[in-house]
Amino acid sequence: MTATAPPQEALRIEGVHKAFGSFVALKSIDLAIHPGELVCFLGPSGCGKTTLLRIIAGLEQQTAGRIVQNGRDVSAAPPAARDYGIVFQSYALFPNLTIRDNIAYGLVNRRKGRDAIEARVKELLTLVGLPDAGPKFPAQMSGGQQQRVALARALATAPSLLLLDEPLSALDAKERDRLRGEIRHLQRRLKVTTIMVTHDQEEALSMADRVVVMNHGVIEQIGTPLEVYEQPTTPFVADFLGKVNVLKATCMGSGRYKVGTVEVATGMNGRIVGDAVRLYLRPEDRVLADSGPVEAMPNALSGLVRHVDFLGTYCLASLDVDGFEGQRMLVYFSLNQTHQLGVKEGARVAFALRGDRVRVFAA
Description:
The protein is α+β, with helices and mostly antiparallel strands. It has 2 domains: 11-238, P-loop containing nucleotide triphosphate hydrolases (Rossmann fold), CATH 3.40.50.300; 244-362, CATH 2.40.50.100. The chain is built from 9 helices and 20 strands. The strands form 4 sheets. It has a 6-stranded mixed sheet with strand order 6-7-8-3-9-10, sandwiched between helices. The protein has a 5-stranded antiparallel sheet with strand order 13-12-11-14-20. A hairpin with a 2-residue loop joins strand 1 and strand 2.
């Protein structure tokens, strides 16, 4: 007898559509999530990412489309009949129960034996770094500790799918940085398929195997963090992720574009000569004079520093670039480069654009 092969997809979303009256929250969403990967739904408020997570969890009913989990159609199944654990932004711990009882809650409902429950709770408390917290109550724990408890409770029943609904947004910056590393380490260790909703770009880029960028109820792009950052396929993705310069330009043919009176050479062809376009490039997409003389390099430029924002390990300078006819550029300088090149208001700096990093979209 041939053994049944495990499903290639932990979750498949097929043509999911959701309307609230005349408002369409999701438009024909198609997505496959593979076993063991961590996928982030990323986008601005109102883009549909939380609605999609709630539909996956069965907390919201789609207007059309299917949800298939591990080969089983759960489109109409209630939440209790779906195999997942969920962690909310607000922790949602029971304040009148001890940490031990919060974690054990799902196991008790499944009528597990006392010894099995105690062993599982002890295992999870150790796993999330709170081995002695069992007798405490949520009010005695910090925000980060409460979120660890919420994560342990979600993992208690060993679900095949973990759903994280903006789990770190209520924490301060330092705790958020620490906990996202812990969550990622734990997810990889347990190999649990995970979907996380966030509007925090840094969170998504640092944690996800793949990022699903959403806007106005549709998926704009799916890719690895590096792909969506370096190779955005739409103007929205280019503008939403990180900082970006958007320059008005005219196509000159053969990958060349004119910005003001300056010609910029790129590797991006496919536009008609004379077309009005927008060039998208990030503040780090440049070569600076500290790497050697830039005057002879392709796309060599110079400009006047109008403003400098000190951001700790680097500075972000706003430049009036010669020949750009009023189109300012943002350029990153490391702290060392800022000192070496004398970057300050009123100074002039030389640099060259990375033509291979420029993205071109229609105006």
